[in-house]
Write a structure and sequence with these properties.
The complex is a heterodimer of chains A (179) and B (174). By secondary structure, chain A is an alpha/beta fold. Helices cover 39% and strands 12% of the residues of chain A. Chain A has a 5-stranded parallel sheet. The radius of gyration of chain A is 19 Å and the shape is globular. In chain B, strands 1-2-5-4-3 form a 5-stranded mixed sheet, with helices on one face. In chain B, strand 1 and strand 2 form a beta hairpin. The radius of gyration of chain B is 18 Å and the shape is globular. The chains are: A alpha/beta (179), B alpha+beta (174).
Amino acid sequence: MASEIDIVPAVATRREEATGFFQGLVSKSLGWARKNSLYQYPFVTACCGMEYMSVASARYDIARFGAEVPRFSPRQADLLLVVGTVNCKQAPVLKRIYEQMAEPKWVIAFGVCASSGGFYDNYATVQGIDRLVPVDVYIPGCPPRPEQVLDGLILLQKKIQAQQHKLIDRLPAQLAAGK
Amino acid sequence: MSQAVAKALVERFPGVAHDAYVGPGGDDVVFVKKEGIAEVCRFLKEDPALRFNLAPYITAVDYLGQDPRFEVVYNCTSTARGHRVRLRVKVPESDLQVPTVTGVWSGADWFERYCFDMYGIRFPGHPDHRRLFMYDEFVGHPLRKDYPLRGRQPLTPERDVPDLYRGPGPETRD
């Protein structure tokens, strides 16, 4: 797996090498821990919810990928699943729910309606939730098959695994002091 | 049905109810002048021979290019007598107002709000005259035939929720 060690320039001090090594170690372990315990918030608005139920229950069993616990409070979740059509009247609610989630957080657009508005190309529907919140993975399909959803989840897990973390994740001194 | 309800209406309200005919599906259809719609509905409900106790669907039609342009359609049902009638009320664009029938059937409340929301027809006397589906910031009436097909409107910010149990909206709201 490509880690940060591979992209360190050829000329590096021992200190930089050591930092890079530990950083890779921290990134890998944090990514591994995070990707295997996703707490999802299902924002289910439409018929894709049926597929979501199928994915979440025993037959397709999203628990195999460690994302089996739906939390119905955004404050306890780190994966926002937007399942179904989001209309303009609902848009501020979705945005508020995203903002209530604690970092780190990820968003999956489940189905074409959430991804692009789908065939609801009309006055009432938001043409893709990426107009409101940043999206990590788009799952196409109307509705998507459970296999597609699991594939999307695995993609997201890969993304989480590949994220880079700093050794000490804190704001620079002048920023923290408010200057 | 054998035109009995339509005939009764035309006889009882000469000049207000007119041009009765048998519509698709065999329903009686009567044109009603919009000034008299509340009286006609009151009569339909309270006359012991008719007893239309239900208005299961009230909607509007936009005949763009015709005059009068709009039409409000009242579908009435009598569960007691088992007959139906449809009232068509022409509404010109210059005077988009129809008297409310919420006093006759309280179930007409949301249908009239729907007609206002989607077609912009006002119902003076309605107890809670707001949009039904769209949000208050929405401009225009989307089911009118001249509403642009790709007419998008900007997203609105979330409204303040002063009372968590009552939800957003003005104080006067139910």
